[in-house]
Amino acid sequence: xxRGQPDYGGHSQKTFGGSLSDxxxxxxxxxxxxxxxxxxxxxxxxxxxxxLLKWIGFNSPACTSVLxxxxxxxxxxxxxxxxxxxxxxYAGLTRSFAVLGTAxxxxxxxxxxxxxxxxxxxxxxxxxxxAGWEARIWYDNSTNSFYVExxxxxxxxxxxxxxxxxxxxxxxxxxxxxxxxxxxxxxxxLYENTEYDLSTRIIPALGGVxxxxxxxxxxxPNDAGAVGTAWADDFILTQNEP
Length: 242
Prior knowledge:
The chain has 242 residues and is an all-beta fold. It is built from 1 helix and 16 strands. The chain is 3% helix and 46% strand.
């Protein structure tokens, strides 16, 4: 059977409609959640529609991370994070993955209605069987600023200060980080419609041993001393990022 897109089909002009050769675009049109940044090869997707939460919750006492249908970016549910009314409380999720042939990794979450006293921390941890590294991005809700943790600076380094996230509108903000655990460097950070170059930033080393694996996590620390809530949806893990 002939295959491909001969001139009389895929590339010819049409009076009505058009042809589609971008498979990533086709996937989105068929309701894929990978719509924000389509680079990289997808390793794992989670739209949190399953009745089973396929993540491990790491929550301080009286704090929770559970499936919830109050708001959702796709489908009918997301994950709701609730923190108790006390300082230094947090709610989060973590999950481990096998590394498939490359250590150039991307991680994406979308977040919604993050309470004023709650920050966000994105983590990607990687162990190669001998040593480990931990990439971290921090959103400081009090200043509407994103920071990256850098080994050379030995501190949090400002990425950008932006407008406050809107609340109460079921508005999900996509956030993605890309790192290279082979060179132990960050690559880029994406938020809304802007991409930030982080290629000069070094990923801090991490203690511990074990077989080669990757750990993805999202955490919502609460420093306001009041009950805090936030939602997250549409997790995407990629490899072979350009």
